[in-house]
Amino acid sequence: MKTATVSVLKKELQLYSQDELIEICLKLSKFKKENKELLTYILFEANDEDAYIQSIKEETNEAFSQLNSTSVYYVKKGIRKILRLLKKYIRYSKKKETEAEILLHFCAQLQTLKSSHKNNPQIVNIYQRQLAMAKKAIALLHEDLQYDFHDILENFESF
Predict the structure, then answer these.
(1) In this predicted model, what pLDDT tens digit does every residue of 65-102 receive, in sequence order?
(2) Which of 54, 56, 100, 113 lies closest to 82 in space, CA to CA?
(3) How many Cα neighbours within 13 Å face the side chain of 32?
(4) I want to staple 4 with a disulfide (CB 3.0 to 4.6 A). Which of 8, 46, 83, 87 is the partner?
(5) 95 DSSP assignment
């Protein structure tokens, strides 16, 4: 089966009634958990971005507290899992302010790791990559928000 492009899908969806569109959305939500999560964000959480960010931060804190720290291998694996989840949440929002705030919180949580884990080159690379991505997102924000985030960024320069 050949997948249609977004523009073709958009034209086709405009032909449907509201009830048919609701039925299509419900069918989509039944197939993948990610579709259901995106629909939940759009319907319930997109209106209050601050609460969305706060819930992600709490989930991140919980995930870092449950991190298996018996070996560096498990720490790296857990960090990558947390990062995958955060990237998915960032994709749902598509707002640079949300991306910057979530990535900076992730970096702050990485700084709380034991020093033996923080010296690992892969963990340092993950930290530096996410910090660079946060800086890139901050550069695209309004000047006032950039100033606020640059004050926060000064704490993250040394890992």
Answers:
(1) 999 888 899 999 999 999 999 999 999 999 999 999 99
(2) 56
(3) 5
(4) 8
(5) -
Whole-angstrom Cα distance, residue 72 to residue 155?
25
d(CA 47, CA 51): 9
The confidence score (pLDDT) of residue 128 equals 92
CA pair distance 100, 140, nearest whole angstrom: 10
For the chain, which residues score pLDDT lower than 50?
none
pLDDT for position 159: 60
- Region for residue 41 given its phi and psi (left: phi exceeds 0; alpha: psi -120 to 50; beta: otherwise): alpha
Using CA atoms, how far residue 111 sits from 76, 97, 108, in Å, is 14, 21, 5
Structure tokens at 142: 């309004």
Contact 55, 85 (CB under 8 A): no
